Amino acid sequence: MFRLTRPLFNAVKRTTGITGLNVHPNPLPELAKTYKSTLDVLANIPETSVYRQGVEALTRHKLNIVESAKGDVAAVEQKLNEGQIEQSLDVASDELSLASKMLEWKAWEPLVEKPEPGQWEYAGQQTTASSS
């Protein structure tokens, strides 16, 4: 029978300490896969889209952190600065979901209807629908 010694037993993460957020058995490959899936979805959005530009840059940066960590979860957690690795997985899957929805919504296309006069006026500044 295999018995864990106390140091080994303490090294195995048993809980995230966050209700509803379970420990992932192999988080780094899953995180890299999610980032790559997000980049694949973003490739279908026009390069001129501000959403694509921002999310693609951030996702590539995070993917580089994961790939350069050589399996060191603690280093990834520290460099991503998003809390525990499971929280980073949660954020990544939410971004993947949003990217899919943005592709479906085609948010980069012009408005179907012209906005009402003053609709794009905030704090006394006049803007147009295309610049907001």
Any overview of this molecule?
Belongs to the complex I NDUFA5 subunit family. It is a peripheral membrane protein. This is NADH2 dehydrogenase. This protein has 132 residues and is mainly α. Helix content is 53%, strand content 3%. The chain contains five helices and two strands. The protein has a two-stranded antiparallel ribbon with strand order 1-2. A hairpin with a 2-residue loop joins strand 1 and strand 2 (125-126). The longest helix is centred in the last third of the chain and has 21 residues, at 85-105. The chain is elongated and about 60 Å long. The protein starts with 5 loop residues before the first helix and ends in a 6-residue tail after the last strand. The model is unreliable at 4-10 (pLDDT under 50).
Indicate the mean pLDDT.
86
Number of strands: 2
- The side-by-side strand order for the widest beta sheet comes to 1-2
Low-pLDDT ranges: 4-10
Keywords:
about 130 residues; mainly alpha; two-stranded antiparallel ribbon; about 55% helix; about 5% strand; elongated; transport; membrane
Secondary structure elements and pairings:
Blueprint (H helix, E strand, L loop, with lengths): L5 H6 L15 H16 L7 H19 L4 H8 L4 H21 L15 E2 L2 E2 L6
Antiparallel strand pairs: 1-2
Helix pairs in contact: 2-3, 2-5
Write a compact overview of the structure shown.
Its main location: mitochondrion. The chain has 132 residues and is mainly α. Helix content is 53%, strand content 3%.
